[in-house]
Queue: 2 jobs
Job 1
Amino acid sequence: MPIPETMRAVEIARPGGPDGLRPTTRPVPVPAADEILIAVDHAGVNRPDALQRAGLYDPPPGASDLPGLECSGTVAAVGGAVSRWDVGDRVCALLPGGGYAEYATTPAAHALPIPGGMDLRAAAGLCETFFTVWSNVFDRGRLRAGERFLCHGGTSGIGTTAIQMARAAGARVWATAGSDAKCGVVEGLGATAINYRDADFVEALRAAGGADVILDMVGGDYVARNLKALAEDGRLVQIAFLQGPKVEMNLMPLMTRRLTVTGSTLRPRSVAEKARIAAELERDWWPRLAAGTIAPVLDEVFPLEEAAAAHAHMEAGAHVGKIVLKVR
Ligand SMILES: NC(=O)c1ccc[n+]([C@@H]2O[C@H](COP(=O)([O-])OP(=O)(O)OC[C@H]3O[C@@H](n4cnc5c(N)ncnc54)[C@H](OP(=O)(O)O)[C@@H]3O)[C@@H](O)[C@H]2O)c1
């Protein structure tokens, strides 16, 4: 298919609420030597897109100002230094931005093959969550078989992935969620559910011996409670602070119980670091996705032009798993 000069896209017309997202027309981006151009089929919607839309999470230097951190699609062009991919290959990819569009560029090393016979709709939501969970739960958190793992936000895109990966790695998993229906979902994925509105996750984990690793995106008063819920030598991994990053607390347990507090954010990491994560995922986790032993949990699909409705849906908090945009 010839590549057009312009494409449909959704831009952040003004920082603020979902209605600041507006359909637009943009030039089709041109891949650099080490990049591919993807004809986007579906694009994943992630909480960081909403932060960017609100003006709280600027794209890194050189990245598209359009939102969208992941997609699935077909390679439409390759840069001069790319040998791995050919035009016509079906891929899913981590993007530096720009996924809410008919075409997007990304470093060739940040694209992965579609696992097995997975459809492009489900594959669109793989990369942001799998890259984030792998680098935080396994790389930084060092979760091992037989350990106890607590995942907050158990029904989020991140949470549904983290529960499945931790279970597949042989860990025992607990997950928090804010309703009985959401608790049913995390139980279905193999976690012990804790409805945080009527139960205390600290008590639940301490009764089980304490968590070896906790993945948290809530912050605020959860930080001190997480430390209480950790076992000796436990690791708290922070990937967001939905209730704020500033806390006053007693850090003595870091010494007395040898705790580790760490975290990371994916988007500003270097091309080489993301390429390393991609290679680890392709080797260890894509075969499990291809075999269907783990699978993405899909919520709703919205047309690209209805990205504002997709964001409102995510921020209403009723979703379970990944929201995706149908681009073509
Ligand atoms: N560090 C990184 O590299 C990185 C990368 C991607 C995403 N993230 C972060 O990871 C989190 C999950 O991302 P996602 O795209 O999977 O988001 P999402 O699906 O919108 O999930 C947010 C989850 O947080 C839970 N939650 C708990 N307390 C909350 C509060 N005070 N306000 C809003 N939600 C609350 C919600 O569950 P309940 O309804 O059960 O409360 C919901 O499941 C986000 O905070 C995102 O910013 C970090």
Job 2
Amino acid sequence: MNASATQQPLNPGDQAAPGTPGSGEGICPLCSGCGKTPDGKDCPNCGGSGRIIEGIGGG
Ligand SMILES: [Zn+2]
């Protein structure tokens, strides 16, 4: 029950928390980085940021 104020809420498209080792920022595949859907609404996958956190490596 100790809410971390510094923790950013993850978007549905995020695969890892920001700053997670082995992860990196990537272009949202749903909106192609524009952060908007064709309807002009905020992209639900990335939360309108146009970018998601991808899990990279995974070796
Ligand atoms: Zn998006």
